[in-house]
Amino acid sequence: MLRSASGAFINVVRKSLVPASRVSSVIPARWSHDGPVESDEEFDARYEAFFNRKDIDGWEVRKGMNDLCGMDLVPDPKIIKAAMHACRRVNDYALAIRFLEACKDKCGPRVGEIYPYIIQEIKPTLTELGIETPEEIGYDKPELALKNVFDM
């Protein structure tokens, strides 16, 4: 007990002897990211090149799409085109549809403006690859939705 009391007393004495100006002059250092900043064109080119790789496998396609979905952006149509080609190369039709749904979801409240533009830009690629949009398949409306009991 005496040891803890003396330790507390020493800390009080030490703090009272340190001048106040010296304590206030300490500025905390912030360790921030000072790496190179990537432009939008470089970002688009990087992801387009990632999806255009010939040796890409299903896991890597999912990883790239998951990374894109985790960012605060809507992918450029040329990235979506490259992703659709990658889905066709790994023969994963469901992944292509799911990515289109995710792109629509990423449009947020401006889905009426952005999503039709995306579909307009990627429609020739979708037709070439034989991929339908979620709206053409009917995934935009619930399949097993029941009528409201109050409307019967």
UniProtKB/TrEMBL annotation:
It is found in: Mitochondrion inner membrane. Pathway: Energy metabolism; oxidative phosphorylation. GO terms for cellular component: mitochondrial inner membrane; respiratory chain complex IV. SUPFAM superfamilies: Cytochrome c oxidase subunit E (SSF48479). It comes from the Eukaryota. The keyword Heme applies. Its main location: mitochondrion. Transmembrane segments: none annotated. One of its GO terms (molecular function) is metal ion binding. It is a peripheral membrane protein. Keywords: Heme, Iron, Membrane, Metal-binding, Mitochondrion, Mitochondrion inner membrane, Phosphoprotein, Transit peptide, Ubl conjugation. GO terms for biological process: mitochondrial electron transport, cytochrome c to oxygen. Pfam families: COX5A (PF02284). Belongs to the cytochrome c oxidase subunit 5A family. PANTHER family: CYTOCHROME C OXIDASE POLYPEPTIDE, CYTOCHROME C OXIDASE SUBUNIT 5A, MITOCHONDRIAL. Component of the cytochrome c oxidase (complex IV, CIV), a multisubunit enzyme composed of a catalytic core of 3 subunits and several supernumerary subunits. The complex exists as a monomer or a dimer and forms supercomplexes (SCs) in the inner mitochondrial membrane with ubiquinol-cytochrome c oxidoreductase (cytochrome b-c1 complex, complex III, CIII). Component of the cytochrome c oxidase, the last enzyme in the mitochondrial electron transport chain which drives oxidative phosphorylation. The respiratory chain contains 3 multisubunit complexes succinate dehydrogenase (complex II, CII), ubiquinol-cytochrome c oxidoreductase (cytochrome b-c1 complex, complex III, CIII) and cytochrome c oxidase (complex IV, CIV), that cooperate to transfer electrons derived from NADH and succinate to molecular oxygen, creating an electrochemical gradient over the inner membrane that drives transmembrane transport and the ATP synthase. This is Cytochrome c oxidase subunit 5A, mitochondrial. The gene is LOC113394070.
